[in-house]
Amino acid sequence: MENSIKIDPFGFREYDARWLYPDDINLEGVTNLGKGLGTQIVNHTNRKNPRIIVGHDYRSYSEEIKTALKKGLLSTGCYVEDIGLSLSPMVYFAQFNLESDAVAMVTASHNENGWTGVKMGIKKGLTHAPEEMKELKEITLNNKFIQGVGSEKEINNFQSIYKNDLINKNKINKKIKAVVACGNGTAGIFAPDILRGIGCEVIELDCNLDYAFPKYNPNPEDLKMLHAISKCVLENNADIGFGFDGDGDRVGVIDDKGNEIFSDKIGLLVARNLSSTHKNSKFVVDVKSTGLYSTDKILKNNSCETIYWKTGHSHIKRKVNQEKALAGFEKSGHFFFNQPLGYGYDDGINSAIQVCHLLDNNNKKMNEIINELPNTYQSPTMAPFCKDDEKYQVVDDLIKQIEGLKINNIKIDNQEIENILTVNGIRFTFNDGSWGLIRASSNKPSLVVVTESPTSNERKKKIFNFIDDLLQKTGKIGEYDQKI
After folding, report:
1. Cα separation of 72 and 76, whole Å?
2. CA separation (Å) from 216 to 44, 226, 231?
3. How many angstroms separate the CA atoms of 402 and 112, rounded?
4. Pairwise CA distance, residues 429 & 401, whole Å
5. CATH homologous superfamily for the domain 262-370
6. Are the beta carbons of 289 and 265 closer than 8 angstroms?
7. Checking DSSP bridges between strand 435-440 and strand 447-453, what pairing results, if any?
């Protein structure tokens, strides 16, 4: 039996678990993961039979993965409550609604077909952070499992409980015409219904479920997806376009003129909107986000503080919780609304609803609202290939090099480095507010590169060329997924 268990140790990522299936994990491996998670939940909750909510996304193999995972959970004594086909935020919501001890969502989010994974959490509204992932890896790979007798039940119709919770709290007055794009991912059976329910006129784009993702990956950072939404917004004269990722915890936004708006800018607009009624609030944003938060006059006038923190839904979620921040925004489209606006976890549909409230409260089009922000030139998130076992060392070496440039006042495009932030890779900022970021991806064998300049598109490109030059010299970089 031992020989037939396949589970690649690299699948245990910083804050969730992802593997290529069946190449890097097989069903026996998934069952062991369930045993590891079940053991961890029993140990953390000190309960012999903790209750765990389980759901799955719409990939062709997600249900068999979930069945194997449940088998492992049951063997450790967990009481499994299966809510069926779900979005990640629906599983998180179920933990509050059903008062359970833990959650496990079978999804590889927006990763290409062939990937599988699990997002899990014990403390309500939070998902595993690096410490818990390390502990889970240790338990699972060393077979340190406890034995117990679990039970399983299906929770029927939970989809409508989740939908109604969002609809009933969020009715809008204005008739907003919204393009809702789901890239054939699981959000297709949720987002259109909920946005219609709050009062939007919805135009559906690729909302039928198709796990082959025939057009593009359901990923609101994917330029192909954003261009498709843009086209649809213009053709239908819509007020706004929303693009949801595979498991529904992220959203991308297109304005009425068909322009893609990076999520960090949307976050800033939402933060501005909230700051007038929630003065002295804290906001948490990730290191990939625009530098405008730290200089924004409206946030300053309302005595609000912005904290830049590690990229990753689990990191930002925890920081929002720890700082008692009002909200957190990640450039990848994860938004977190804390009490009184939400339970602190990321829900792409709730984020889209907050944007609808923004439009509902303004007598302006989305394009006019976004144009009130100072202009900056931003790159998309670019990911050059770098091996999992080399990427962190590559970043550490680059940090030393860039710190050296700062000490020696070396200029890049006639700008000196003014500030360096190393909470997550390295973010280096110049005198004019331009900046560049290099960090290791948490869930793929790649690095992450982002640049922004409030000065010019040319400067944004020059900072990228500077970074690319450093990366190429390492000899450890492969192709980029996209490039400016």
Report:
1. 7
2. 40, 10, 15
3. 33
4. 15
5. Alpha-D-Glucose-1,6-Bisphosphate, subunit A, domain 3 (3.40.120.10)
6. no
7. antiparallel
In sign, the C-alpha dihedral spanning 92, 94, 100, 103 is: negative
Task: Tell me which residue of 201, 183, 199, 273 sits closest to 237, measured CA to CA.
Answer: 201
Q: Render pLDDT for 406-449 as a digit per residue (tens, 0 to 9).
A: 999 999 999 999 999 999 999 999 999 999 999 999 878 999 99
pLDDT tens column, 161-208 = 999 999 999 999 999 999 999 999 999 999 999 999 999 999 999 999
Q: Average pLDDT of the chain?
A: 95
- Domain 175-260 matching CATH 3.40.120.10: the answer reads yes
**What are the residues whose beta carbons fall under 8 Å from the beta carbon of 462, sequence distance 6 or more?**
412, 413
Q: Average pLDDT for residues 240-267, to the nearest whole number?
A: 94
In the chain, what is the straight-line distance between the N-terminal and C-terminal CA atoms, in Å?
49
Task: Give one DSSP letter per residue of 229-284, joined into a string.
Answer: HHHHHHHHT-SEEEEE-TTSS-EEEE-TTS-EE-HHHHHHHHHHHHHTTSTT-EEE
Scan for tokens 């360096």, then name that residue.
Answer: 420
Residue type, 415: Q
Q: Per the omega criterion (within 30 degrees of 0), is the bond before 340 cis?
A: yes
| Type and span of the H or E element at 168 | helix 158-169
In tens, the pLDDT along 399-412 reads: 999 999 999 999 99
Burial label, 315 (beta-carbon count in 10 A; 0-12, 13-18, 19+): buried
Structure tokens at 375: 């202009």
Class in CATH terms, 2-157: alpha beta
Strands, E, within 316-414: which ranges?
Answer: 327-329, 335-337, 377-378, 411-412
